Amino acid sequence: MHRSVISLAVALALAGGAALPASAAPAQPKTLTKTAAQTTTQLPRGVRPLHYDIALTPDAGASRFTAQAAIDLDVAAPTRSITLNAAELTFTGATLVPAGGATQQSQSARIAVDEEAQTATFSFAKPLAKGRYRLTLAYSGVIGTQAAGLFSLDYDSDGSKRRALFTQFENSDARRMVPSWDEPAYKASFALTATVPAGELAVSNTPVASSTTLPDGRVRVRFADTPKMSTYLLFFALGDFERAAANVDGTEVGVVTRRGALPQAQFALDSSAAILREYNDYFGVRYPLPKLDNVAGPGRSQFFSAMENWGAVFTFEYALLLDPKISTQSDKQEIFITAAHEMAHQWFGDLVTMAWWDDLWLNEGFASWMESRTTARLHPEWNTALNAVGVRDGAMQRDAVATTHPVVQHVETVEQASQAFDEITYSKGEAVIRMLEAYVGEDAWRRGVRAYMREHAYGNTVSKDLWRRIEAAAAKPVTAIAEDFTLQPGVPLIRVAEPVCKDGRSTVALTQGEFSRDQPERKPLSWRVPVVAQIAGSSAAGAQGRTLVAGGKGSISLPGCGAVIVNAGQSGYYRTLYAPKSFAQLSGAFAGLAPIDQLGLLADSWALGMAGLQPASNFLDLAQATPQGADPQVWGRIASTFAAIHAQYAGEGGGEGGSHFAGQQRFDAYALKRLAPVMADIGWNAVDGESTPRINLRAQLIEVLGHLGDPATIAEARRRYAAMGTDALAVPPALKKSILAVVAEHADAPTWDALRGAARSEASPLVRDTLYGLLATTNDPALAQRALALAITGEPGETIGAEMISTVADSHPDLAFDFALANMAAVNARVDASSRSRFFPMLAKGSSNPQMVAKVRAYAEANLAPEARRDAETAVAAIEDRLKVRAQRVPEIEAWLMRTGI
After folding, report:
1. What three-state secondary structure class fits 700?
2. Backbone phi, then psi, for 516, in 5-degree steps?
3. How many whole angstroms separate alpha carbon 276 and alpha carbon 883?
4. Which of 439, 680, 448 is nearest to 572 (CA)?
5. 455: how many CB neighbours lie within 10 A of its CB?
6. Mean pLDDT of 825-837
7. Given the residues 170, 308, 334, 342, the one annotated as active site
8. Least confident of 28-37, 112-121, 133-142, 318-327
9. Contact present, 619 and 599 (Cβ < 8 Å)
10. Residue 561, Cα to own-chain centre: how many angstroms?
11. Active site residue 342
12. What is the spatial distance between Cα 347 and Cα 449, in angstroms, rounded to a whole number?
């Protein structure tokens, strides 16, 4: 699943990367390191599904469906009952017959549903002996309006309302459409038949095997059987769709969109073809299914943008389609990245699946790492390799507070599984993989991954299964390092002593501590940390030194003398704290550092400054040392941090009025002075042949300068917006979102009304959703209140309202949180059912109001089970950290501004 930024009946040949014929039966999974008896389950052990035969009849207009499921079972020990998962299903019949048995041997079951546990138990008058059976269930259920189970998405087409159906089952929502053993270790094959209206296209994991027109005009579509897979990967979609496809290495790669939008999916189709070739080669085992679709749906979810259903990826339109009216270069890159992530899951997650949600990172961390690796490899012109620092930084921000958790975490409940989809699972998982790959080498890492795939195809694994294969391929110890970083939480801190230069070599002593934002006095944990260092500016062969800091101490020897950059290349997952003299040397040499190391030094100096481990102004020293011609992504990092400093002042976050105090005005003046020359150099108009990062920086600077209140930027954005109707060049598509963002943020009531009117009349769902989202970005509290009220009406759409509320929270967290509490039922109806425990705390986390801490805790106590409160406590930690930064760090920035006279 790709976060908001998130797939059939053949077998895989495990040798040579060649696929078996389509008629071949799926290979059986290998034995797990963790036995079935050890794997966590919420269901009674002893009964396992082998195959599901599902007949589905959806009624989109009535938002209901009827269905029958015939499930082939293996009963391992005598029992009088069978319990499986079911949620919001109404059963009308249940019978059981021995495999191959006659009808007279069937037993009817007594049905007991436990809504709270989301289970159904089928009890029998006669005990069941060990053996195989078929359980047949007749039932009905609800088609929802949010992405959980079988759900609908409405959109406008040629002036009329249309409705399409989709499924979203991860992590625990297959039970809303199929009574099932809805846990990842209970793999089985699936045969899906759907009775659908004529003229609509039905899509599932596998190709259509047969299609029959019924006497009433409807069509019964049967899809080919899937291989063994987890329930959360099953998929079904139905609507007025179009499909285009290409053949890649014997696989039909397709895109599916609402009618009329297919040309906007061409880039996604071309990208998917290139990515599949790359993955077939990298993994050494060919993609095993006959087709791989990417299915677009309008609207959005608060918590994911795409889902890796095997053979039928689902992606919200904003992450799949390029609309020529509004899509940007950044959108194009995000489409590629999202496709790369979901397609990586076809191996990591679908072919080989974690045994339980404890090891979710085996899915998401690896897919995140593969998306980054593949994007950098196939599109080097985007220079996305520099994004590694931002990914690591996002993980560390979450990992440096007491409410963090290990990458491999213990999960017991559905709510805890839902909350596991976070920065630690995705971004820390990715960063740790990048570090370990750098430690063992790319070739050894790849050999280990290939061996892991071959051994566990169609099965379930735990992390040790992977480490065992990587260690064997690398012929060096990896498991101990990997488990230091995955079985315990937190961020190592490497303290760098002053270098000692002798006989042309520098020796640097290293000490390992722990970087914490809220527990600085706690005894640090211990890690074995791979460290890479070099003399700043040195590019000669052998210039880098490597060591493993273990037991809290280490040292490294480098050829040459001068400023030393630790974590050179930024592959390590740790913060680096330099002695003051060393930092001053690096600041002086900053312009000559590689861009990746400039970004790493900026990230560490900002984080360490906010934690009080070095002056908060050190970041500003580096910003001052940055030449105007630095890499665009370095300037992008500086611009985003300036925006973060701006937000730390009173008047943003907790102060709903948005008033600027003198300190904020002083800082904004400095930031504008620093950024304006960069913007002047780039200009508002595109230049032939300019680099992709430069294009992206232009859009970012317009938004940041507007956010900082730059009069010239606001005036130019308004001028272009006013001329949009008469001058086709005033608002080019590449800048439309940025220009509208500045206009919307500083809108008065008439402008806000005009934007709303444009949203109402817009035919393109992509543009329409964007415009409604912009209404929520206003600085004006009165207009923000209007946006909140609008969000819970039907006007923006059932899936856009929650997005608007969370967008308001970016600038007015107290206002948004209070509104959501006062309208809890209406808000909950617009949030995915499995994600509600996360939504409300998310609204509050940007507050600067001390009273918000008590509000969040009161909400959690009244509405969340104790084991589901981690996101609430994380929001509290963010608020408390923000208050501490405002009290202790902002004055340091003020003093720097006064001292330097800038």
Report:
1. helix
2. -135, 135
3. 47
4. 439
5. 17
6. 87
7. 342
8. 28-37
9. no
10. 42
11. yes
12. 10
